[in-house]
Structures are given as C-alpha cells and as structure tokens.
Design a protein that fits this description.
alpha/beta, 4 strands, about 15% strand, globular
Length: about 120
C-alpha cells in the first residue's frame, strides 16, 4: 500500500474545541485508523489551516495545533494551508504526485471541502 496515503485534514484544537457535528466520534475513528495505517506502511499526511493573526487558528497558538490525540510522528509530513483547499499553494499535490500516492484517503473536519 505504498501508493496510498491517509490525509488528516483540519483536525486542530481551534476547530475541534467548537464541537463540530460528531466531533468526538470523528476523533475516535481517526485515532483507530492512524495506527492501522502506520502498521501497514500507509503514509499519514496532515494538513492544517492557518487562519491568520488573531484567528482561532493563528500559528503558534494552541488552536493551530493538531489535536494531541492524533499527533503526527516526527517523520510525518504536515502541510499548512491558508485557503479552503488542501491543494491550493500548499505543495501537497506535488508531494503526492512525486511519492506516487495515487490511492489517497482523507478524514477530518474539513474532509467535505478537501478539493
């Protein structure tokens, strides 16, 4: 499954603290999925949103951080976006193309607006 990656999108404290619909269940599902991916050599890639200065998703704040329950490991990639797209000006598309991750799967708060 080396051509597959799990994309974890926008699972940040600032978004999850607001209590999204079924947020706790989403976190539990991601918590269960990530170790299975890691054990089966499926790359886990994180995407987080930079909301800019003064926002709940301001870099350097607790809100910007990925939820600790699903924290990336030191060797896992994190892409930061400033638009409602994981691919617009993030380098993610190029990275996935170069690493041939053609069977990508996504999960997270903004999964519905990934593209």
């Amino acid at each position: 499954m080396k051509n597959t990656a799990l994309l974890v999108v926008d699972v940040q404290n600032g978004l999850m603290d607001e209590g999204p619909y079924q947020g706790e269940q989403v976190l539990k599902n991601i918590e269960a999925l990530i170790p299975v991916c890691r054990e089966n050599e499926v790359e886990v890639v994180y995407v987080r949103h930079d909301g800019g200065k003064g926002s709940e998703l301001e870099p350097g704040t607790r809100g910007f951080e990925i939820c600790a329950r699903i924290s990336p490991q030191s060797d896992e990639n994190i892409f930061t976006k400033t638009y409602n797209s994981a691919f617009l000006k993030t380098g993610l598309k190029d990275y996935l193309t170069q690493t041939r991750n053609s069977g990508d799967h996504s999960c997270g708060d903004a999964d519905r607006i990934l593209h």
